[in-house]
Amino acid sequence: MFKQLKSLLLTASVLALSACGFHFQNGELIPQELQTLHLESSDPYSDMAVSMRRQLQLNNVNLVEAKAGVPVLRLNKTTTSEHVVSIFKQGREAEKLLVLDVEASVKLPNKEAFSISTKVNRTFFDYSRAALAKSSEKEVIWQDMREQAARQLMNKMVALQHQIQPK
């Protein structure tokens, strides 16, 4: 009886959500002026540029070649750094703080440029006896940080909507 009730409630909720036109928001918050833009970077094949391009495509932003009348998202500067947070008794590094700092700007046609930036921090436990595994783990963490930075830049582009719209 309880199992049938559970399946009935699950079916009813799925039908209710599909019947009302519910869908996940994907790019709906991006301002209309930024729905089509050109992504510019000093290295278009860098890991950060690839992550940003992927995030833009996931949010249904049309990426086009540079031409007049198209807004430009420029990745100005990407900085990575590592700081020692703690050490072992023997004096070797135990834990590091990984920092990714990204500065970008959105330039609208015939208007000023808006600067956006983000900073992502992660801690990383560095155990020298498992150097190869830790090297791979560190690269996975860096990639995750780039994806998070790209998502944060997208959120800041959404926040630009109040500055972009004419008053």
TrEMBL record:
Organism annotation: Aggregatibacter segnis ATCC 33393
Localization of this protein: Cell outer membrane
The keyword Membrane is annotated on this UniProt entry: yes
Physiological role: Together with LptD, is involved in the assembly of lipopolysaccharide (LPS) at the surface of the outer membrane. Required for the proper assembly of LptD. Binds LPS and may serve as the LPS recognition site at the outer membrane.
Membrane topology: Lipid-anchor
InterPro entries: LPS_assembly_LptE (IPR007485)
Family: Belongs to the LptE lipoprotein family.
GO cellular component, one term: cell outer membrane
Signal sequence segment: 1-18
Gene3D superfamilies assigned to the protein according to its UniProt record, in alphabetical order: Lipoprotein like domain
Entry's Gene Ontology molecular function annotations: lipopolysaccharide binding
Description of how the protein assembles with itself and partners: Component of the lipopolysaccharide transport and assembly complex. Interacts with LptD.
Protein name: LPS-assembly lipoprotein LptE
An annotated GO BP: lipopolysaccharide transport
Pfam family, one: LptE
Key words of the record: Cell outer membrane, Lipoprotein, Membrane, Palmitate, Signal
Superkingdom of the organism of origin: Bacteria
